[in-house]
Amino acid sequence: MFWLRSSKSNLFATQNYRPEIDGLRAVAVLPVILFHSGWTLFSGGYVGVDIFFVISGYLITTILLRDKLDKTFSISKFYMRRARRILPLLFAVMTVCIPAAWFLMLPWELNNFSQSLVSTTLFTSNILFWQEMGYFQMGTELKPLLHTWSLAIEEQFYLFFPFVFIFFGYVKRTRLLLAIIPICLLSLLVSEWGSVYHPTANFWLIPSRIWELLMGAICAIILSKWELKENNIIALLGMVFIVISIVLFNEITRWPSLYTLLPVVGSSMVILFAGKYTYVSRLLSIRLLVGIGLLSYSAYLWHQPLFAFGKLYSEIYSIEFLMPIMMAIILPLSYLSWQVIEKPFRSPMSVLYNPRICVPVLVIWGLCIIGLGFAGIVTNGGEKRYSGHDRYLASLDEDQYVRYVTENFNNLKLADYGDQSLKNILVIGDSYSQDVVNAMYESGLSDNFNISTFHIWPQCNNLYFNRNATDGINDPEVNCLPETVWDNLKLQDLIQTSDLVLWAAHWKLWETHLIPTSVNVMKDLGATEVLVIGTKYFGDQRGINYRHLLSLDYGTRLNTSFDFPENELAVNEVMKNQQDYIFYDLYPLFCDSGNRCRIFDNDGKLFSFDGNHLTPEGANHLGIGISSVQEISELRD
User: Fold this and answer.
1) DSSP state of 396
2) Contact 362, 110 (CB under 8 A)
3) What angle do CA 219, 221, 226 make, to 5 degrees?
4) β-strand 449-455 against 423-429: which pairing, if any?
5) pLDDT score recorded for residue 460
6) For the residues of 48-113, what is the DSSP string, one character each?
7) Cα separations (Å) of 394 from 76, 115, 138, 420?
8) Side-chain half-sphere of 307: how many Cα atoms within 13 Å?
9) Exposure pattern of 144-177 as b/e (b: 16+ CB <10 Å)?
């Protein structure tokens, strides 16, 4: 081929330093940092991790091939090199995080952080975060060790890859290539399938990520066996692929999937064809980019803890421009840690390079971190740091409350109406309808009715009943699954046999005008009466700021109140004036005539734990309120 010349002795990929690879590292790490800082221009900045995977696969395979050709390869040497490279700085960052977490985190947050200390040290943090959440959901930005999931993926990969290399690589590089390609293709197919059917597991777990590392390995094998001609066009096209990924992809892009081919193939094209004299190589070899690339591991490890603890600190003291300050610190701190921590463990001239010193230091260091992690778990995040009224507020566990919100509702999903002597109530809607079910349980209303539930995604709501109702509406949140009520025979039967349909949601202004249409659809299906519950909101735009509340004395804290948002008031006003259904306004239940809404009840208990969803005390307050609704009172009596 025009771009390929066979050369068994070619060591292009195994001996010569390639500054453009360090420049590519800079291209990988900078978008990740900017994405986590909130820059919308870099909406796909997370693809930097995928670029890192390709680079890692390329460099590690290159080292293995070089050692094989030099006849110096050994498993112990490989893992010692990995330990020197990864562990010292990782342990140093985790060590710095521990006192910051103690002073800034609430007990439930510190408990979660302690779990991440253990899992990160054991390179299983990707599994922990998979069990906890999605990468893009709210709250993840406050997890200091969230980014270590990618290190876990790499180290899990390198647990088995050297043995694949030994088995095939010692025979012939061609056989190694032929062994890797099917695994790479299979992993790619798994990632595409998983992105549709199991997106959370697909993001966090290694089966859907192997192919990205193997793409780098394939590049290394190709360059060690064949001499490729430099190619400006292909290398430039690879950079274009990377830039497009960073700018155009976003949080709703299925990931990893076939879309991930764009940055992965782009990175591979740069590695394969950006020779010394290409425009791409010259660009990536600029001293500034090479310098950032050399610091990329340090910058990657430091950026997330700085951002997370900075945001936690600002919740207490409301410091403006904190994010730019944190960003300005990253590179100087990275340079310092590179000089003081990374180089001493990796330089043969250093005492810490000696395995007899290095191994015990790292083992003891790691065990201490694991021990502190277990201590944080056993003490439930050190909740005894707080006493009196502070203990209640500090010990609130958002994860536990999230489970509370959903449990009763999910247990009643499309449940048959059982007791024939009781009236039937169907509760439908998004997560706000889950609060309604809890309100019925907490106030005792559930004892008087048969209850069934059905969840409708917030992006759907009215659209579930009338898909054509969106004509002429231009709103990015208008999105829905292909199913409608007409496809759900069970739901139709429950609507028909219900004595009352309770519909609650976090209503948006655009959809309030469609509620009468949806209500009429339900009545056409046999609904006797429909009660629509208005929206609610507690706290400021960030919800409930626990750290700020804890900084207040108890009396001031108890009387804390917030203005009900104007956009929520506008929604309620529209719904009040509609005639096709019964409307229950939550505003008078939680707010006074001066538009001030308290977040604590008279006993000092929060109504809401996140600004939207109710605690048991808040649910009980709502239950007492809806008990007074005439239609519910009549059904109960």
Assistant:
1) -
2) no
3) 95
4) parallel
5) 74
6) HHHHHHHHHHHHHHHHHHHHHHTT---HHHHHHHHHHHHHHHHHHHHHHHHHHHHHH--HHHHHHH
7) 47, 18, 20, 45
8) 22
9) bbbbbbbbbbbbbbbeebbeebeebbeeebeebb
Q: What pLDDT score does 7 carry?
A: 38
Amino acid at 67: D
Q: Which amino acid is at 517?
A: T
Q: Residue 10 has what pLDDT?
A: 44
Q: What is the DSSP string of 575-612?
A: HHT--SSEEE-SHHHHB-TTSEEESB-TTS-BSBSSSS
Spatial separation of the C-alpha atoms in residues 283 and 286, rounded to whole Å: 6
DSSP labels, 228-249: EPP-HHHHHHHHHHHHHHHHH-
Angle between helices 296-317 and 75-104 (to 10 degrees): 10
**Which residue, among 244, 312, 298, 268, has the nearest Cα to 54 in the 3D structure?**
268
How far apart are alpha carbons 249 and 305 in whole angstroms? 25
Tokens matching residue 157: 């990969």
Predicted structure pTM score: 0.83
Q: Please, what's the largest Cα pairwise distance for the chain?
A: 91
Residue ranges of the chain with per-residue pLDDT less than 50: 1-14, 136, 472-474, 476-477
Rounded Cα gap, residues 44 and 58, in angstroms: 23
Q: How far, in Å, CA of 128 to CA of 116, rounded?
A: 7
CA 326 – CA 305 distance, rounded (Å): 10
